[in-house]
Every structure is written in C-alpha cells, then in structure tokens.
What does this fold into?
Amino acid sequence: MSSRRRNALRLMILFVLTGLLQACDMDLYTNLSEREANAMVAVLLRDGIPASRKVQDNGQLTVVVDKQRFPEAMARLDDAGLPQQKFSNMGEVFKGNGLVSSPVQERAQMVYALSEELSHTVSEIDGIVSARVHVVLPDNDLLKRVISPSSASVLVRYDPAVDINQLIPQIKTLVANGISGLGYDGVSVTAIKAAVAASRPNAQPRLASFMGLWMLEADLPRARFMFGCLLVAVLALGGVLGTQFWKRRKAEALYVLKGAE
It folds into this structure.
C-alpha cells in the first residue's frame, strides 16, 4: 500500500470517529457565561441527564446534551428557570443615542428601567424562579387637586417547595421601597407555582465504572459503543499496517535471494 493510500485510510477512520462523537451530542444553549453554563450542567447532571460544556471561539460556552435526551433537558431547564432572564439596567436604558429625548420618552425610559431593575432584584430571591414587575407612574399635574398614587404589579413563578406566603410581604416591601411615592398597599403580587418535571428522579443519579473511568450509568451504553468502534478502527489499521509490513519483508527477502544468485 502506498503512503498516499495509507494517509487516506487514516483520515477516513478519523472522520468516522469524529462523526460518531458528534452524532450523539447536540447543542442545547450557546453563548453562555461560565456561571450560566455551570448552573445548567449541574441541574441536568443532578437529574441524571448527561451534559457537558464546550468552549466557543469567542470564549463563551455551549451546553451539550445527548441528542436523545434533548427534549427532556429543555423541559428540565425550563422548570428550573434556566437560563435566567436577561434584564436591562439603568445604564443600558439611558445610554445616550446622540438625540435629544422628549419628556415622554424619558418618562417611558424611567418606567422601563424601574421595572427591569426591580424584576431583576425580585428574581434573585431564593425560591423565586422568575419575576416580572410592572410599574405605573401616573403623570400628575401639580395644578390637579387629586393626585393619583403610583402602583406596581408583580408576577412571580416560584419553586413549589417554597412557602410563598412568607415571601409575598417581603416582595411587596422591596418593591414599595424601590419606587418613590409607592406605598405597601399599592403593590399587588400574583404568585404562580412552577411546574415540576414528572420525570425528575427522587434519587441521585447512579454512577458506573468503565475501563477505570467513572461516569453516569446512562452514559455507559454510549461509552461501550464508542469504545467498540474505536477498537475496530484500531484493529483495522493494525491489520493494514501488518499486511504492509509483511509484504515489505517478503519483497526484501526476494531481493536478497536474487542478489545471492
């Protein structure tokens, strides 16, 4: 076998193995920070769903799961409130755009910024999966005799294991103190219990050992399959190299015999 054919065979084996590895996994979420990726992988592994991270060219991370477990992984992360909501901060909302803002635009920006900041703060409370705060700041005229008070509506989705009745007064106080002119009674809170995945196991995922390596028991069949494919490829390559070596030795022996004659 010529050197060109040998190199082509090696490349073909490499491509086959690479295809087998990539065919089993699927990107779940991309462009994640390290904190976001770690939180997702931890939740999935805790529930027995094989998951891993890979670094992108831009330095951010991608969470990868088994292709067959993709729907289950998406449902589990959604129940856990991951990835977390993205909120705008005051700096982003009031970032200068080179134009003169009208009073109406500035007021709308202020209301939006307050809503985003408060939503972010409430969502950071332990037991709250997600939160949205809608702020109403009435445009009161100083000449009016009756002044309309400010108000806020809060929608939270909470962990079923949490006693939400103990959190509601804290949420109302937090929002009321975050808006000028807003009283405790002007804040309404609507709490919705987050759904619990039916397939979530009660026990911790079981581990298994394969070739001296510890892995999730769910990964064991795939590891055996990949090891079998790799073993077949190595044996095939060894057979090709052995045949080539035998032919070369035979040719050298014939050359020596002809030289002796």
User: Anything to note?
Assistant: The mean pLDDT is 76.
